[in-house]
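Need a sequence for this fold. Nothing fancy.
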């Protein structure tokens, strides 16, 4: 176990109970988020990115069940904590930004009262909390925050609402911010602005960020490390450089090939990875990517690959890496 990590996820398994059976949405997920670093989670829709983020926050629906593993945050396993202790970490040591800002904002309360309430862990007067809220709104680019703090969420545009959510999430100076697709609902120009804002604030506050995104360009811009998820598993992880310049798992390579930001030739049809993400119902044999993998070996459909270490921080689950290591040994 690394001594520097703020968050250590170890061997996490999670199922959703459904009328058709148990959906294995996370399988043997292990991931580190070091203090003050930004870790991106990428993967196609349905790969389990949001489920992982919500599991760390403890915000899961009733049909979810963690069946194995640990989530160690600041040295304590969140999964062993009484619910009240875990709850007390939210909006204090841990905070979250959602894809839809209205998930976090109460539509019938002013921004002022919501931003003062979020500081309930702080021993400060109401006027000090109000001043801190105004300073943070100014920092995230809300014009005229002294008067606009009295407004309600519907009086702000979508981009401004997301800025307010970032202000609220960071006002408490969390050790870890979880951002679940925070720019997906915004247009490209606003997305760039929000990514730059998050990057600047992360550096100022010194918090770590777990950043879930479909957008590989945003991940490359913001993150220090990346975990690539496929069908509930982390198939490859490493530094941004490892993943974008030296991807070793066939799925990561396929994902990068389909990224619109990396396609040089002009095309009307963006490529997609052939085939579909497999059903997560029932027990799986072999490599989870075997049905779509262009490099699959005979044993891939029978034997699960181990995780191979490629570099200091670079690891991937693929039999091809085992073959290469045998050749070089
Ligand atoms: P997206 O990018 O579309 O948000 P994702 O990578 O975040 O996708 P998740 O939303 O975490 O993926 O979903 C992972 C799997 O878990 C999917 O197969 C999804 O259908 C399933 N799932 C998610 N929530 C539930 C639920 N409440 N009940 C049953 N299955 C669920
Ligand atoms: Fe492809 Fe086999 Fe590697 Fe899976 S283990 S990614 S099927 S080569």
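Here you go.
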């Amino acid at each position: 176990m690394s001594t520097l990590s703020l968050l250590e996820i170890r061997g996490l398994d999670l199922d959703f109970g459904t009328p058709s059976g148990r959906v294995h949405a996370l399988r043997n997920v292990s991931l580190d988020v070091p203090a003050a670093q930004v870790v991106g989670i990428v993967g196609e829709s349905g790969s389990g990115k949001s489920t992982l983020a919500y599991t760390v926050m403890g915000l899961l629906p009733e049909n979810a069940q963690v069946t194995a593993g640990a989530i160690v945050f600041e040295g304590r396993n969140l999964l062993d904590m009484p619910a009240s202790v875990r709850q007390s970490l939210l909006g204090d040591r841990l905070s979250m930004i959602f894809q839809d800002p209205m998930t976090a904002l109460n539509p019938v309360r002013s921004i002022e009262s919501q931003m003062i309430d979020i500081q309930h862990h702080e021993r400060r007067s109401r006027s000090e909390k109000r001043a801190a809220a105004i300073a943070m709104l100014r920092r995230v680019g809300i014009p005229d925050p002294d008067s606009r703090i009295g407004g309600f969420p519907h009086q702000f545009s979508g981009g401004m609402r997301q800025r307010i959510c970032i202000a609220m999430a960071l006002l408490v100076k969390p050790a870890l911010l979880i951002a679940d697709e925070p720019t997906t609902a915004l247009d490209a120009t606003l997305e760039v602005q929000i990514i730059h804002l998050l990057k600047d604030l992360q550096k100022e506050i010194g918090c770590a960020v777990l950043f879930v995104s479909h957008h590989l360009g945003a991940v490359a811009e913001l993150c220090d490390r990346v975990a690539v998820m496929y069908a509930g598993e982390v198939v490859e992880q490493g530094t941004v450089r490892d993943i974008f310049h030296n991807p070793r798992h066939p799925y990561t390579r396929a994902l990068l090939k389909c990224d619109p930001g990396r396609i040089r030739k002009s095309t009307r049809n963006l490529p997609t990875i052939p085939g579909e993400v497999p059903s997560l119902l029932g027990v799986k044999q072999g490599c989870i990517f075997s049905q779509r993998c262009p490099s699959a070996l005979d044993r891939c459909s029978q034997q699960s690959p181990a995780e191979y270490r490629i570099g200091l921080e670079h690891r991937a689950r693929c039999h091809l890496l085992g073959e290469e290591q045998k050749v070089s040994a």
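For context: The pocket of iron/sulfur cluster (ligand 2) is lined by residues 249-250, 287, 289-290, 293, 295-297, 300, 305, 318-320 (CB under 6 Å).
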